Amino acid sequence: MLPSQPLLHAAVFALTVLQALASDTFIAAVYEHAVILPDVTDDPVSPSDALALMNKNMDVLEGAIKEAAQQGAHIIVTPEDGIYGWRFTRESIYPYLEDIPDPAVNWIPCTDPTRFAPAPVQERLSCMARNNSIYVVANIGDKKPCNSSDPSCPSDGRYQYNTDVVFDREGKLVARYHKYNLFRRETQFNYPKEPEAITFETPFGKFGIFTCFDILFREPAVVLVSELQVDTVLFPTAWMNVLPFLTAVEFHSAWAMGMGVNLLSANTHNISLAMTGSGLFTPEGPVAYHYDSGTEDGHLLLAELSTHPRLSPTYP
């Protein structure tokens, strides 16, 4: 008699965890995504139209996630703005946002999608992670209501945050990060009141996460590495290879070498805006990278990295 699907899933998950625990390395993936962008408008689209656009991007990301998992990846990072793009005002981005709870609630959206407010994007990302037994890192938008008792509450009664989420192999939400250092054009989002230093433990090391422009600042970037001692940083980005950013691959590789950590950098791909350059970077230099200013194609990168790079005998 064949085992039931839940038992089979549990057995595969347990085996994967044991394999990771027994190894000093893990396989990481990043996907540079050529984002399908919405039409430019100052008026909000309907929630159904917003979800349809996001599903088109998630169809592409799901294909990359499946391919990475089939090649043995333990974790995959996707880019900033990778699910809905950019070109938004504060009002027009609202239909694309979801209320993202604190990971302390111990939630698997894939198996319990109605526990919180409608969250079809979180549900689908959770199912991608669960169905492929891989950690999935994505960038989406969070919305939080506020009222007049909060002196910082915007006039529309809500905070809107540029947000990274991480789902583990079971599809559980294990990390949520609100971008603290917004780029000058991100007027659709609010600054968090305090910088967040988000970490989480896995069978293959301690991870931290931040977004794009954050890498240039002490909080959270330096704090995660020097004070919280993460092994690997997850870095969704929409990086333009122009001043003040400079070339993505060179800058991000140098940052990983200088900080002494792995950096999993997943960039948005848009050659008209000089956005390209993703990689898997280590203290010893780049293990794999991609830079393509000639085509509009996405690209998947995989590499085997040290679980604890500071303990490596070749650590600089």
Brief digest:
This is Vascular non-inflammatory molecule 3. Residues 1-22 form the signal peptide. With 316 residues, the chain is of the alpha/beta class.
Labels describing this entry:
5 helices; C-N_Hydrolase_sf; single chain; Nitrilase/N-carbamoyl-D-aminoacid amidohydrolase; signal; 316 residues; pantetheine hydrolase activity; globular
How would you portray this structure in words?
With 316 residues, the chain is an alpha/beta fold. The chain is built from five helices and twelve strands. The chain has one domain: Carbon-nitrogen hydrolase (Nitrilase/N-carbamoyl-D-aminoacid amidohydrolase, 4-Layer Sandwich). 24% of the residues lie in helices and 25% in strands. A six-stranded mixed β-sheet has the order 5-4-3-2-1-12. A six-stranded mixed β-sheet has the order 6-7-8-9-10-11, covered by helices on one side.
